[in-house]
Amino acid sequence: MRENLTDLSKHIKLKRKQNKLTQPELALKAGVGLRFVRDLEQGKSTLRMDKVNDVLRLFGETLGPVPMDRDKLITDE
């Protein structure tokens, strides 16, 4: 799961830089706090999905289910 958070963090940072936005500018445009943007880009594991979507919406994107390799899941069996 941590891998997906890292991917999201890298994706947001890349999109921000491609759009020539600073973290404060992104926070302002998305209507979220600067601390949230920093936490998002650092891969914090507990983030509100609605706020993540507020940021992604600026880039024409949204969160959604992603298929994963079931063999990589950890089970108690």
Describe the protein.
With 77 residues, the chain is mostly helical. It has one domain: 434 Repressor (Amino-terminal Domain). The protein has helices spanning 2-18, 23-30, 34-41, 49-57. Helix 2 packs across helix 3 (34-41) and helix 2 packs across helix 4 (49-57). The longest helix has 17 residues, at 2-18. The radius of gyration is 14 Å and the shape is elongated.
What percentage of amino acids are in beta strands?
Answer: under 5%
In oligomeric terms, what are we looking at?
single chain
Helix content: 40-55%
Q: Measured on Cα atoms, how large is the radius of gyration?
A: 14 Å
- Mean model confidence by pLDDT: 89
Q: Please identify which CATH superfamily we are dealing with.
A: lambda repressor-like DNA-binding domains
Number of strands: 0
User: Low-confidence parts lasting 5 or more residues at pLDDT below 50?
Assistant: none
Could you give the order of the helices and strands? HHHH
Count every helix, treating DSSP H or I runs of 4 or more residues as helices.
4
Distance between the termini: 19 Å
Q: What's the overall geometry?
A: elongated
Give the domain tally.
Answer: 1
